[in-house]
Amino acid sequence: MSAAPYGSRRPGRIPDPVWWAGYLVLALWGQEISGGFDFLTPGLLVCLQTGRWWTVVWMTVLWVLVQEGIGNLAFGVAVLFYAGMFAFFLLTKWLLEPENPLFILFFSLVLSVWAWVVLSGAISFQEIGARMHSPWPWVAKQWLAYVLFWGGMLVAYRRWGGHGRV
Amino acid sequence: MSPRFKYLLLFFFLPLFLYFSMYTWNWKTGYLDRLAAMVGLDVAGWVMAPGRWLQNNVDEFWSRYVYLVGVRQENEDLNQRVRELELELARVSEKAKSADRLTSLLRFSPEANWETRGGRVIGQRLGPNAILETLLIDLGTAHGVRANDPVISPRGVVGRIAKPGLHFSSVLLLSDSTSRIPVITSDGRVPAIVQGQGPGAFLEVKFIPRNDPVAPGEILISSGQGGVFPKGIPVARVVEVTPADVSLFQKVYAEPLLALRYYEELLVLSRTDGYDPGQPMASAGAAQPAANGTAGQVVPAAGSAKAAANSTNATADKPDQPAVNASKPAASGAEPSKPARHPVRKRS
């Protein structure tokens, strides 16, 4: 059976807005329960993998506002993080096929390290007297969160998502 | 211009320039911070609120109708406690009346009135950028809540509003390392500053001179100086006092009176006289305090308005610049400045 082309919704599947609204609820609860690890980004990565650029655009704007709004740092940290993520994604795409599990593993690690660098850089740059987490345990936990949530979302999106193949 | 240089310019330097332009513009104006607070806190709040409501109802159902072990004993204990409190109330109310009479006789200026609003905690550390000890509550500017409004529970101070959204706000907890509250000891009336040390750590009580009396078990209450917290709210209990050897100040540690992260309902206090400790007085020479010592904004003196507008909570760090400076009136002719928009940023 051939896969449906990009951009076309397969009958009986969840429409995109409903899907991503549900994703937002799940991700925010994930962030709350995990004590502040990032669960919103994997949704963006799924969109990048599938090449849904308009979804990427509005979702990036919304995710930036949400992450900055619920955070305690001056505006700009999430912007820098997502800009770096897009750059890394385009670079890594040259080396590995985005649907490859190795890509998810490797890219999640890069992204976890990048998140820590951006966050600790912002804390020292903005001179906030907060202690940053020690790097490697934090990076390891964030990596695990990215891999599991990204992998899980990818599988779920393949089965129940509103559009064609991933 | 070589093509390589063009690409470098286009894909690296141009975005970098745009990013720093946006960052600097927002640093000066705070527009993006406010937009993010309005959107982000509201989105997160509306997402979390139904789940939290469901969780609270399930908990309530379980504890009220299913898990009733020890309820009878607890009821008897509470009845006994109510009787004790009634006796104490009768005794204290007489004292309160005489204090009011004496106050009016001595013509003290009346204390500010505070309005109380009850709010529910619906979230805690919600994201990677939430690096401070904060809570999300379901009260925002639509309910009259403003930045720096005190947040308390019946047992004592919880923190203050760090970032108000439209319907939800972020509360900076007392235990956060950027939080500072001016206090006095309940018995010795010694002024000090309580500073958070992070989750699970004791609070540090700063600037208690080496010869001043303070003992473990003593309660620290808010001094009311700085204009953020009303006077007399319990803040912490002293747990450790180490006499000074060479320092001018004793090393004193205290613990919060409540488990800050386990509260579901909180009270937000707002001044009814409209005074905002983060705003300079409109009229020069007004008899309101000019500085704020509780990690809020520092109202600038003339000539340093711009620098002070973005500064917060730094004065408490410096013994030579006392944070508790409520007696100092606003400098005459001081340039009215915008309030510091980021209440936890340290002064550079």
Explained architecture:
Chain A is mainly α and 166 residues long. Chain A has helices at 16-34, 41-50, 53-70, 77-95, 101-125, 135-160. Chain A has one domain. Chain A is built from six helices and no strands. In chain A, helix 2 packs antiparallel against helix 3 (53-70). Among the domains of chain B are: 79-107; 180-259, Thrombin, subunit H. Helix content of chain B is 30%, strand content 21%. In chain B, strands 1-2-5-4-3-12 form a six-stranded antiparallel β-barrel. In chain B, strands 6-7-8-11-10-9 form a six-stranded antiparallel β-barrel. In chain B, strand 4 (156-164) and strand 5 form a beta hairpin. Chain B is globular and about 85 Å long. The chains are: A mainly alpha (166), B alpha+beta (348). Chain A binds chain B through residues 24-25, 28-29, 31-32, 35-38, 40, 62, 64-80, 83, 115, 119, 123, 126-132, 142, and chain B through 15, 19, 22-23, 26-27, 32-33, 35-44, 47-48, 51, 123-132, 134, 136, 162-163, 165, 170, 176-178, 198, 342, 344-346, 348.
Helix-strand layout with pairing:
The complex is a heterodimer of chains A (166) and B (348).
Chain A: H1 16-34, H2 41-50, H3 53-70, H4 77-95, H5 101-125, H6 135-160
Chain B: H1 3-29, H2 31-66, H3 71-106, E1 114-123, E2 134-137, E3 150-153, E4 156-164, E5 169-173, E6 180-185, E7 191-195, E8 203-206, E9 219-222, E10 234-242, E11 251-256, E12 265-271, H4 305-309
Antiparallel strand pairs in B: 1-2, 1-12, 2-5, 3-4, 3-12, 4-5, 6-7, 6-9, 7-8, 8-11, 9-10, 10-11
